[in-house]
Specification:
- The complex is a heterodimer.
- Chain A is of the alpha+beta class.
- Chain A has a single domain, classed as Sufe protein. Chain: A (Alpha-Beta Complex).
- Chain A is built from 7 helices and 3 strands.
- Chain B is 39% helix and 14% strand.
- The longest helix of chain B has 36 residues.
- In chain B, helix 1 runs antiparallel to helix 7 and helix 7 crosses helix 11.
- Chain B is α/β, with parallel strands linked by helices.
- In chain B, helix 6 links the parallel strand 6 and strand 7.
- Chain B has a domain of 144 residues: Aspartate Aminotransferase, domain 1, CATH 3.90.1150.
- Chain B is globular, with a radius of gyration of 22 Å.
- The chains are: A alpha+beta, B alpha/beta.
- Chains A and B meet through helix 1, strand 2, strand 3, helix 2 and helix 7 of A and helix 8 of B.
Chain lengths: 164, 397
């Protein structure tokens, strides 16, 4: 069912975890199956003075495909300029994983969405102009996140309690 | 990696805990079947010796099975699988009942998809269906059953034991209600046969499958009482008393009879042995924080354990266990082709977060306690690993 590449990422996922004081956080949920991913980025400058994703970490509650795409997106995006990261597509991710079962293609959207949402968060926090395409994506993601939050009310309430 | 008892094609050994999905065919069964795949290949409908040889084997198997089910031989109708048997019971009776102006059937909410989707299809043809609710353990609510039956009701279908959560239904009580109200009662006993003693006196129709009891795939049966008239699904040469046309799968049927015989013989010992392994699994799995047992704590199949682990997703659990050489299954949405969580778990009232992290472990005659010890060691590690990746999990230390 899954390619060997997918299973490799599943077995040994890269960049798992959380970044304290992240430059941007992308929280996304998949309303189809209920998978959830939180992605953290740290933005810095490269030697050419371009803005790049210096560090990236993620946490995912989901299936093999969701975990593998989280891992591969983090590998690809690490070191990328913001501009290039915004060009990352889920087709590219699926290709990188040597394909996904058709029913699992929707999972690949989750990771790319999380990355772009984290960039949105970063740009917004710094009062930077936001590309129209990204703004639209943000709107859709927020709508879906509301659905997911309803589904996992019990989890989120617990989290709030613990944060206090 | 622990060397389990089940062989895989790569030569690695697996610990096979998915016996509710299918089982390994036993060697005695294979041996009984082989002649009918080889030299005794006759068509049971042929007049010549080869045909008659097959016919004799077929009828001997039928008589043996009838005996085991306390039924008459002409009440046993062989077919290709339990999905067919269940389709046959529901549709066959529905078409007959329609002639008598009856159009209502009752099925439980936790039936196998082959019952539920058949009921839904009948609904699309104008039949009316009541989907009977279950309590938090998956036990059908008898009071609601009594209430649901009306003068238009022709059938109640409730499984003997549930395939996902292992809950055993109050079949005797349901059968009694159906008898009193003069409604036919069908039960899908695929998971129950050979695991627990069955009380079939008041059951009008029963579905069984060979491959769940160490028999071959591709053969099932519907036991149907003579007094009940039903319409065939398959028309043709008039096999199986005109109720199921198609050349009989003689080898499969011979294997089925053998498998049933052996299952019943071993049941007293095996069910106790497997229950001990089940109880050990349950005890250890429930020591994992934020876990729960799905299904009834007592009224459950001796070989079934079903858990929910919050903050971990079921497909990932199954695949992690697979990495450790353990074969299991899940009711998570991610694992289903429609991406919906298990209808059985939702019917129990589980939150989506719990249904998402479900794990089913089903034992069989080849499992050993050493394998269970290994699973008890690996399972907490796997859950912990997945929770570490999850954004919702916080160590509460």
């Amino acid at each position: 069912m899954y390619s060997e590449k997918v299973l490799e990422h599943f077995r040994k996922p890269s960049n798992m975890g959380k970044i304290k004081n992240a430059s941007g956080i992308g929280k996304v949920g998949n309303i189809v199956c209920g998978d959830v991913m939180w992605l953290y980025i740290k933005v810095g400058e490269n030697s050419k003075g371009e803005e790049v994703i210096k560090d990236i970490k993620w946490q995912t509650f989901g299936c093999v495909a969701a975990l593998a795409t989280s891992s591969v997106v983090s590998e690809l995006a690490k070191g990328m300029t913001i501009e290039n990261a915004l060009e990352l597509s889920n087709e590219k991710i699926v290709k990188e994983l040597n394909g996904l079962p058709p029913v699992k293609i929707h999972c690949s959207l989750l990771a790319v969405d999380a990355l772009h949402e984290a960039i949105y968060d970063y740009l917004e926090k710094h009062n930077r102009p936001i590309p129209e395409k990204l703004a639209k994506k943000h709107e859709r993601i927020q709508k879906e996140l509301k659905e997911i939050e309803k589904r996992y009310k019990d989890f989120l309430e617990l989290e709030k309690r613990l944060e206090k | 990696m622990w060397k389990g008892t089940a062989k895989t094609k790569k030569g690695a050994n697996m610990i096979y805990l998915d016996n509710a999905a299918t089982t390994q065919v036993r060697s005695e069964v294979i041996e009984a079947m082989l002649p009918f795949l080889d030299k005794k290949y006759g068509n049971a409908s042929s007049l010549h010796s080869l045909g008659q040889e097959a016919k004799t084997a077929l009828e001997e198997s039928r008589a043996k099975i009838a005996d085991m089910l306390e039924a008459e031989p002409d009440e046993i109708i062989f077919c290709s699988c339990a999905t067919e048997a269940n389709n046959f019971a529901l549709k066959g009776l529905a078409f007959e009942a329609k002639k008598q102006g009856k159009d209502h059937l009752i099925v439980s909410k936790i039936e196998h998809h082959c019952v539920l989707h058949t009921a839904e299809w009948l609904e699309s043809l104008g039949f009316r269906v009541t989907y009977l609710p279950v309590d938090e353990y998956g036990v059908v609510k008898l009071a609601e059953l009594e209430e649901a039956i009306n003068e238009k009701t022709f059938l109640v279908s409730v499984m003997y034991a549930n395939n996902e959560i292992g809950t055993i239904e109050p079949i005797k009580e349901i059968a009694k209600i159906c008898e009193e109200k003069d409604v036919a009662f069908h039960s899908d006993a695929v998971q129950a046969f050979g695991k627990i003693p069955l009380d079939l006196k008041k059951v009008d129709m029963l579905s069984l499958s060979a491959h769940k009891i160490y028999g071959p795939k591709g053969v099932g049966l519907l036991m149907k009482r003579k007094h009940l008239r039903i319409q065939p699904l398959l028309h043709g040469g008039g096999h199986e008393f005109g109720l199921r046309s198609g050349t009989e799968n003689v080898a499969g049927i011979v294997g089925f009879a053998k498998a049933m015989e052996l299952a019943l013989k071993e049941m007293p010992r095996e069910s106790k042995r497997q229950a001990r392994m089940r109880d050990k699994l349950i005890k250890h799995a429930l020591q994992i924080p934020e876990s729960r047992l799905n299904g009834h704590p007592k009224k459950r199949l001796p070989n079934n354990a079903n858990f929910s682990f919050r903050y971990a997703e079921g497909e990932s659990i199954v695949m992690k266990l697979n990495e450790h050489g353990i074969a299991a299954s899940t009711g998570s949405a991610c694992s289903s082709p429609k991406l919906e969580p298990s209808h059985v778990l939702l019917a129990l009232g589980l939150a989506p977060s719990e249904a998402h992290g479900s794990l089913r472990l089903t034992l069989g005659r080849y499992n050993r306690m050493e394998e269970i010890d290994y699973v008890c060691k690996v399972l907490p590690e796997v859950i912990e690993e997945l929770r570490e990746i999850s954004p919702f999990w916080h160590k509460k230390s």
